[in-house]
Write a structure and sequence with these properties.
about 550 residues, alpha+beta, five-stranded mixed beta sheet, 9 strands, about 55% helix
Length: about 550
């Protein structure tokens, strides 16, 4: 359904073309009935130009030859056909056929017209068709490119919104990971401490009750922390490599592992650290990941195996650091159901993946549990190169740039392949068409100028020149009126007068000087015919050459 505004516009245009067609027909001396019929038909054809652009163009071209009332319609439908005919080749074929049809019918209808008149008519018909057609095609090309660029811009805005949402989810993942690693570890220690105090025989009943309340509060806090971490992690698939933290600080790298062990010892756990191999520096992200592996291992040991001995191993291999936390079997089942959301191992696996490493967790042969991570040695400059995007990561990653420079997620300087192809194809096809059309128009204008100049010169020559036979046919004594009726007026810019070397004119006579169509004896001499009149009669005629 067309909107009401377009319907009103189409009806108004149809009525306008009908009125113009009637007026043009009356100016061309057509009968009133014929002019009205042509105008009504032109108005009806204008309503079909959108659905049948080629057919309406051919009909208007054919009707414009015998009926001048179709001329306004031809301009409109040529513009419309240039917009709506698909394909450059098809458009050229339709316009060529319309031009040939119009020119051929004009030649057939005006059988008495001269070749010069038909040539001028053909030029004007060409201009009347090509100019609106090229204008319509250019407007269509510009609108197509504008719509395509608007669609591309909308797509970029949608992608940007998706990236913002992804960044928000990643930030939530980072917060969740930090809450789990830091607060979870501290709450686990609080639960272990209060659990140990609760069974202390030296405490009074009231103190034991207070410690029990404290232990229940810490366990409830861990449950709430698990729920909050689950909410924050919901929908986030890829935590970052900890760029927003300060992983280079001693308390958050391999250097802080001793502090973790000491904290656990103060909680009553037997913790031993074993180191082997030559210590080597790690990348910031790998150093942070090693700290988190030990922290997670200690937290799990405190929660699930309180009182069991814990061994922390740091083994420097030739190509990687192996970090492991192993605890012995638990003597008694854990009371109180300490919360465990299963988020710690998932976060560790992701941290290790981001630096090109891996994490393994599982029971040991003696009934204990072991958490180990393999972290490769990488320099800070290589940390970004080891990034491996998740399989479902929709973001296009650019190669790493120079240090200190950030790389855009999307290359905003280029267009999508489909859009680039469409733009190039449209530019190439329509550019050729418009270029050829402009060249054709220039040629047409030049040809029209030459034709008009030639016709003008011919007319001026007819006013100033006669054949020698016309000169011989005039006799002395003939009346001035009859002589002037047989000869041209001589009123032309080409007739410069008798010139140098002309014989004197008779006294009291008025003379008419005309040029001869023959060539003079030299380039500087023009043959001239002079006719002198007196008392209404021809008294003298002379032929001479003047410079």
């Amino acid at each position: 359904m067309w909107p009401a505004q377009r319907v009103v516009g189409e009806v108004f245009l149809s009525l306008t073309l009908a009125v113009l067609g009637v007026g043009a027909g009356l100016l061309d001396d057509e009968s009133t009935v014929q002019a009205v019929g042509v105008g009504v038909l032109a108005g009806l054809l204008s309503l079909l130009r959108r659905g049948l652009p080629a057919a309406v163009l051919l009909a208007a071209a054919a009707g414009s030859a015998p009926f001048f009332g179709f001329a306004p319609l031809l301009l409109v439908v040529a513009w419309s056909a240039g917009r709506r005919i698909d394909g450059l080749g098809r458009a050229c074929a339709v316009f060529a056929l319309a031009y040939g049809l119009s020119l051929g019918l004009t030649a057939a209808w005006e059988s008495h017209a001269s070749w010069a008149l038909l040539a001028v008519a053909g030029m004007f018909i060409l201009v009347a068709m090509i100019v609106p057609g090229l204008a319509g095609r250019y407007w269509s090309q510009r609108r197509t490119l504008t719509d395509t660029l608007h669609e591309y811009n909308a797509q970029l805005l949608r992608e940007r919104a998706m990236l913002v949402g992804q960044a928000r989810m990643v930030e939530r993942q980072r917060i969740a990971q930090d809450m789990h690693d830091s607060l979870g570890h501290q709450l686990a220690l609080i639960a272990v401490h209060t659990g140990a105090l609760e069974v202390d025989r030296e405490l009074t009943g009231q103190q034991r009750e207070a410690v029990g309340v404290l232990r229940e509060a810490s366990v409830a806090a861990m449950h709430e922390l698990r729920d909050v971490v689950g909410v924050l992690r919901d929908g986030a698939d890829a935590p970052p490599a900890g760029d927003g933290e300060d992983p280079g600080a001693p308390s958050r790298g391999v250097g802080g592992i001793d502090g973790l062990a000491e904290t656990s010892r103060r909680a009553g756990a037997a913790v031993e650290i074993r180191r082997s191999g030559e210590a080597r520096p790690l990348a910031t992200t790998a150093d942070h990941a090693a700290y988190r592996v030990v922290q997670e291992g200690l937290t799990n040991a405190h929660k699930h195996a309180p009182g069991a001995p814990i061994t922390i191993g740091l083994r420097y291999e030739p190509d990687s650091l192996v970090v492991e936390v192993a605890n012995g079997p638990v003597a008694e089942p854990v009371r109180g159901g300490v919360a465990s959301g299963g988020q710690g191992l998932t976060g560790l696996e992701e941290r290790a993946r981001l630096v090109g490493g891996m994490v393994h967790a599982g029971p040991t042969a003696d009934g204990g549990f072991r958490l180990a991570g393999v972290l490769p040695y990488t320099s800070p400059g290589d940390a970004r190169k080891t990034f491996v995007a998740p399989p479902d990561d929709f973001r296009a990653q650019n190669p790493a740039g120079p240090a200190g420079e950030s790389d855009p997620v999307i290359d905003w300087n280029g267009l999508p392949k489909e859009l680039a192809k469409a733009v190039n194809r449209t530019k190439r096809g329509n550019g050729i068409a418009i270029g050829c059309g402009v060249a054709a128009l220039v040629v047409v204008v030049l040809v029209i100028g030459v034709v008009v100049a030639g016709v003008f010169l011919v007319r001026e020559a007819d006013k100033a020149m006669i054949e020698p036979e016309q000169y011989d046919a005039v006799t002395i004594g003939q009346s001035e009126r009859s002589v002037r009726g047989e000869l041209p007026s001589g009123d032309s810019f080409m007739n410069t007068g008798p010139g140098d070397g002309a014989p004197p004119e008779p006294d009291g006579a008025t003379c008419l000087t005309l040029l001869s169509t023959e060539i003079g004896s030299s380039l500087d001499a023009d043959p001239v015919f002079r006719f002198c009149f007196k008392d209404g009669k021809l008294i003298e005629k002379k032929s001479f050459e003047a410079g």
